[in-house]
User: What shape does this take?
Amino acid sequence: MVSALGPPVLPPNLGMLLHQVVPPERWCMTRADLKQFRNTVAHAAAHGELTPTAQDAFDSSDMRLGPSIRTVCAQFIKPTTARAGNMSWALMLHPDGLECDLFVSHCWDEGIYEFIDKVLLS
Assistant: This one.
């Protein structure tokens, strides 16, 4: 649906629908997606869209560790995906899903750049 005031207005339940229709084994991202996500987060941190907290006093100029995954999720991923319809980041990028051939897990307090760099170097 398109709003007369600007960009498309996506139904808030779009994410719920996608998560019901696309099987979990297809909620995937590519290496290129990870590289782009790292750049997007770095841009957001450099421009004050991600801010340090009492729990995560990250330095926005630190490109080695970065903000924690917990901070990135709360301050960046959730607001971005909420505007897109409340789906996961992976389904926001690939609404039909992708074939996965690797599963990785993370620690919530791990730095996002460190995590992505380790995955990309694996």
Summary: The two ends are 42 Å apart (CA to CA). The mean pLDDT is 90.
